[in-house]
Amino acid sequence: MTDLDGPGTPRAKGPGEGPEAVAAQIADAVESLAELWSIAAQEASLRLSPHQLRALRTVQATPGLNLTALADGLDIGLPTASRLCDRLAAAGLLERTQHPGTRREVQLWLTSHGQHVLCDVADRRAQALATALAAMEPAERSALSRGLRGFSAARDTVVPGVDGTE
After folding, report:
1. In the predicted model, what is the mean pLDDT of residues 85-96?
2. CB 113 within 8 A of CB 92
3. Secondary structure of the chain in the HEC alphabet?
4. Which neighbouring-strand residues pair with 46?
5. Which of 12, 106, 138, 160 is most deeply packed, by most CB within 10 A?
6. Burial of 145 (0-12, 13-18, 19+ CB in 10 A)
7. Cα dist. 54→57, 121, 125 in Å?
8. If we measure between CA atoms, which residue out of 65, 64, 40, 66 comes closest to residue 119?
9. Could you tell me if 64 and 95 are in contact, meaning their C-beta atoms sit under 8 angstroms apart?
């Protein structure tokens, strides 16, 4: 295959070197990682859906946020977020408290049990990933690490707002 995108760029590329081919490889790897992530999470002390885990991680990242902010962050409706929080509170993972300044507003907090469950999931995911990485050759791990750093740097320059800024 030859890349003829513009003047000065006609160079031969191997079949797996072009951006589209690498994008397909990355998509496959992301699917494998998502499966590994899901399996590791399901082996945790308490089985939670990806939606429930995401809600807990959102509350962990922003302790005391309100239900509306959680719904917005998860891109779900307010009634759905309320039912989700009801289930998490019933499981002892989340606590709802009245906002000290506004009686109508409810704040969301992780319980110590919720923190423990998230740590358990994170530990299991890290171990599963470390096991997969250990099966790679050291040179492959090094190349992967360099590639991920390069990808992150390129993404930050190409996609505005990825790092949280506009």
Report:
1. 96
2. yes
3. CEECCCCCCCEECCCCCCHHHHHHHHHHHHHHHHHHHHHHHHCCCCCCCHHHHHHHHHHHHCCCCEHHHHHHHHCCCHHHHHHHHHHHHHCCCEEEEECCCCCCCEEEEECHHHHHHHHHHHHHHHHHHHHHHHCCCHHHHHHHHHHHHHHHHHHHHHCCCCCCCC
4. none
5. 106
6. exposed
7. 5, 12, 14
8. 40
9. no
CA–CA distance, 100 with 107 (Å, rounded to integer): 9
CA 148 and chain centroid, separation? 15
- Position 135: which residue type? A
Q: To the nearest whole number, what is the mean pLDDT of the chain?
A: 85
10 Å Cβ neighbour count for 79? Answer: 9
Mind listing the pLDDT tens digit for each residue in 24-49? 988 998 999 889 888 888 887 788 88
β-sheet bridge partners, residue 2: 12
Residues facing residue 94 across a β-bridge: 110
**Mind listing the pLDDT tens digit for each residue in 19-29?**
888 889 889 98
